[in-house]
């Protein structure tokens, strides 16, 4: 399977559109996590909340989002693993089954084989975007809070099962990601309980206005 230039261009355009659909799904679902409490408490006007969320979510993605982005990009499935997993067949349908075959063919990799792997990787990532867009759309329609990270990781895992027959998936990275899904709600729940109790003691039950004012000032700034 060798993609023509027109096919590649069409897939890139489709990926661009799908990326916007996924971003819209994230905005309708995930983004509420960052400012939902402000909206519910009516602390700020909706317009100001949206402006602040745009500014700080963009800054977070640009300044400190590289680590998570790199994990999604190459942490679970690496393009180099896809290149090594496929033989020189023009059909691009027969992945290597064992390490011996990969090592034996490593010195005989051609441009055609690399193009084959890139085509598989491109189609795989398009399938990931389609899966994410549909999953987030359905979740939003059903009014279900769904993490885009969960959807993306699950989609990449599904792509790896088909394209690599489950081989060369970075399982330890996948285990760490899934473990964080289990541990982070527990840790955040405990932390929220401690903070809530502390605020209740310092503000809710205190008669000292100065103490309450200092605590509120620190929380705001």
From TrEMBL:
Where would you say this protein principally sits, based on its record?
membrane
Q: Which organism is it from?
A: Myxobolus squamalis
Entry keyword set: Membrane, Phosphate transport, Transmembrane, Transmembrane helix, Transport
| Any one Gene Ontology molecular-function term assigned to this protein's record | phosphate transmembrane transporter activity
Q: What is the lineage of its organism?
A: Eukaryota, Metazoa, Cnidaria, Myxozoa, Myxosporea
- Subcellular location field: Membrane
Q: What Pfam families does the database record attribute to this sequence?
A: PHO4 (PF01384)
The family assignment reads:
Belongs to the inorganic phosphate transporter (PiT) (TC 2.A.20) family.
What are the TM regions of this chain, as residue ranges? 7-28, 48-68, 122-142, 148-166, 178-203
Q: Name one GO cellular component term.
A: membrane
> One biological-process term from Gene Ontology?
phosphate ion transmembrane transport
Report the protein name in the record.
Sodium-dependent phosphate transporter 2 (Trinotate prediction)
Q: How does it sit in the membrane?
A: Multi-pass membrane protein
